[in-house]
Design a protein that fits this description.
By secondary structure, the chain is an alpha/beta fold. It has 9 helices and 12 strands. It has one domain: P-loop containing nucleotide triphosphate hydrolases (Rossmann fold, 3-Layer(aba) Sandwich).
Length: 253
């Protein structure tokens, strides 16, 4: 679980993040939703310990800043929005999810190899394991990185735009994967622009605007609040049609 109290961050150019209180619970998919530049990625980077900040971030009851790199890596995995394409194959990239907890030797044991394979099978990239990252599609690269963070085997996942580059089917599969991970007890936190899917698979929706969380709660309650149009400029409505892929749809403001 992540607990935030009095979090603030400011950068050159005038943008300021200020989150008074926020709880992101184990066993739930929590999504951060808002317009471009509202602070979703900045908040996620603070939660991951990537950006310096003022205030308190508790990870499973422990102050994030008090955790060393390896201990943090055992508790939390973070997938940023911008992904590189290093000179390696898909399997090696997925193995990097285990390296943070292994120390200097970085020799994978039987359990490590099992976790890597399970993560690759879950994300649908096991069959691509021998392919160079330079030779896979954007969506396949995204799923390879997802395999890496799942292989890290932590209790908390922070994912910034994980559905980027994924086609409709893979996006649906990703939602089911995140649901499965949350059902296994993980705290899954996702920053996304994909509003329809976010409201459809999340347990908690956190609406952001101007560096602040202006509403948080179950999708149905948030969708009916006036904060949606303020945060998104459009409305969100639940659809009573079981044939639809996502049960929430965008409506005109």
């Amino acid at each position: 679980m992540i607990g935030v109290r009095g979090l603030s961050f400011a950068r050159d150019g005038g943008f300021a993040l200020a989150v008074e209180s926020l709880e992101l619970n184990d066993g739930q998919v929590s999504v951060l939703v808002g317009r471009n530049g509202c602070g979703k990625s900045t908040l996620l980077r603070c939660l991951a310990g990537v950006l310096p900040h003022e205030g308190s971030i508790l990870l499973d009851g422990v102050e994030l800043g008090d955790l060393g790199h390896r201990e943090r890596a055992r508790r939390l995995a973070y997938l940023p929005q911008e992904l590189g394409c290093p000179h390696m194959d898909v399997y090696t990239l997925a193995c990097h999810g285990r390296f943070a907890t292994l120390g200097a030797v970085r020799t994978l044991g039987e359990r490590d190899r099992r976790l890597v394979r399970e993560a690759m099978e879950l994300t649908g990239v096991w069959e691509l394991r021998d392919r160079s990252l330079a030779d896979v599609s954007g969506g396949e690269l995204q799923r390879a990185y997802l395999a890496m963070v799942v292989a890290q085997d932590t209790g908390t996942l922070l994912l910034d735009e994980p559905s980027a580059h994924l086609d409709a089917q893979r996006g649906w599969e990703l939602a089911k994967l995140l649901r499965r991970l949350a059902d296994e007890g993980l705290a899954v936190v996702v920053a996304t622009h994909d509003v329809e899917s976010a409201f459809s698979f999340a347990d908690e929706v956190c609406l952001m605007a101007d560096g602040r969380v202006i509403a948080q709660g179950p999708p149905g309650a948030v969708a009916k609040s006036g904060a949606v149009r303020l945060a998104l400029g459009v409305g969100v409505a639940e659809q009573d049609d079981p044939t639809l892929l996502w049960r929430y749809a965008l409506t005109r403001a």
